[in-house]
Amino acid sequence: MDAAVIAANAAISAVTAEAENAAARQPTAATAAVLRARGAPYALEAVTLAAPGPGQVLVEIRACGICHTDVGVQNYEQGLPLPQVLGHEGAGIVRAIGEGVGNVDIGDHVVLSYASCGHCGNCTDDHPQYCSDFMLLNYAGLLSDGRVPMQAAGGAVYGGFFGQSSFATHAIAYARNTVKIPPDLDFALAAPFGCGMQTGAGTVYNSLAPRAGQSLAVFGTGSVGLAALMAAVDSGCSPVIAVDINQERIDLALQLGASHGILSDPSRLAADLRAILPTGVDFIVDTTGIAAIIRAGTEALASRGQLAVLAVTPPGTEVSINPNLLLGGKSIRGAVEGDADPQVFIPELIERHRAGRFPHDRLVTTYPFSAINEAVADMRAGRVIKPVLVMD
Ligand SMILES: [Zn+2]
Ligand SMILES: [Zn+2]
Predict the structure, then answer these.
(1) What pLDDT score was predicted for residue 2?
(2) Is the pLDDT of residue 218 over 90?
(3) 144 CA to centre of ligand 1 in angstroms
(4) pTM above 0.85, yes or no
(5) CATH for the 10-194+359-390 domain, from 3.30.450.40, 1.20.810.10, 1.10.150.130, 3.90.180.10
(6) Distance of CA 115 from the midpoint of ligand 1 (Å)
């Protein structure tokens, strides 16, 4: 083919792609799991999803993990408007892009993470997880341009949860929280990278950054705790100690590389940790949010030790500590989303997974989308660690 024909063909395919995008950039018929009342089960409903606007991406969702934050919002008043579609660990295929979206294209396989503005002080300082508009962009129930994202037979349905609302066959996300993934990666394994795996692993790799040979304990071995534990093992931490109230979880933690497991009793926890490490633990990751457990952690820290708290605790939770416990250069800090920029960190986690260094597939149990209420019940009962819904 000569150059003129090649150029003509390229021009035709560009025009065709733009025409396809324009056709796809319309309101979309979708099925969504709608939460209509606090504590109610999800109901699968037909909805119409708004057309993606500037900076927005229409994603056909193929899998979505369930996170404890979804369960919290489903069951406890947190100020989110109802009815709403939750779900914030979506993975799928880009079907349309709005004006100005340059990082993904139609047909790309993607995972969705939390939304951030990109221009506040923390966003420009490479900490989008502490975006000044985090609540507005992730919890307001609307798209960032103020539109209501969905309509159902009963009227408006709120969404935009974590910049997505992925308990649905389709979602609108933003360029900044849509991360391209390899096309051969299983959507069910990709989805949990968007929140739970990023939160646990990022706390170790990014927030605490232990050196090989330093000690680390994880309090609570759910999906976030086990993600932290796998990252600690991968970082060469020693010993790596798993603390839980469930022996099966401790057994799994040991299989994933923990050197020690402790069945927790808050009154004995600090002593149990000091029996393993008489000078204290260098790093502790708390995923329980239980005051007595966090307090025991402060009693078990080594000099210059750090305790990271990750759980959203029920209103009224308070931890009393003796401030003298923090002398010796010790600190307690919080962390959101593993201090991770998803565009950078999720590709790194995928590489680690593929190299066998982050075997989070051991935590995943898949369910058909229609079994969402059963999946939530199984997670709450501790029967599964990371349920992932798979859309057909
Ligand atoms: Zn920001
Ligand atoms: Zn989450």
Answers:
(1) 65
(2) yes
(3) 12
(4) yes
(5) 3.90.180.10
(6) 9
